[in-house]
Structures are given as structure tokens and as C-alpha cells.
Amino acid sequence: MRQTYSCATRSRQQGAVLYIALILLIILTIIGVVAARLQTGEAVMARNDHNHQLALQSAEAALRDAEINLAIGNWSIPQFAANPVARAGDPLCTPSNQTQSCAVYRVTAHAVGADASASATLQSIIH
To answer: What's the pTM value of the predicted model, to 2 decimals?
Structure first.
């Protein structure tokens, strides 16, 4: 009797667990692939942001260096005379007496990031 019960149970099984397991594996595979693609996209965004920050910091360092060299007098007016600034409108500064000159400089610094995918340009007007 016990043996016939086993045969009757086997004939009623239809393999539903196999189908459910396959569906769950497909769902988990899709979730894994999506997560891997998101991770790759986030890595690209982080690298681009890092390159932009490098370019911005390099341009700012060059701009500050030029401003300091102009302030302490390492660079003179003839070096910048080829590109005059603020000649058309009102003066940006006025000398306190007739013997003092008023020089206005526009300093532009351009820098490129680590892999040339990002660049930054900064300008400053010094008088």
C-alpha cells in the first residue's frame, strides 16, 4: 500500500516549483544587470565631476598667480598693452592725483581637466 501511495503522489506533481524558481532567477538577473549599469553610470558621472573640479582649481590657481604678480609689480603695463581693457566706457578707477596712473587689467585663465573632457575659464578685472 505504501508503494502505491508514492506512485499516486508522483503522478499528481506538475513541476510548479521549477517554474517559480526560474521566474525568480530571471527577476534577480534583471535586478543585477540594472544595478551594474547604474553603478557604471555613477562612476562616469563621478569621473566627469572630478575632471571639472581639477580644471576649475587649475584655472583659479593660474588666475590668483596672475593677480599676485600684477599686485606686486612683477608684470608691467607694456606686457599687457597689446590688449587694452575698459577704454570705451567710464573708467573703472580714477587716479588720486595727476601723477598716479590708473591701470585696469582683465586676466583670463583657462585650464583643462585630467583627460581633456572638462575645461574651465575664469576672468578677473584688476585695478
So the answer is: 0.57
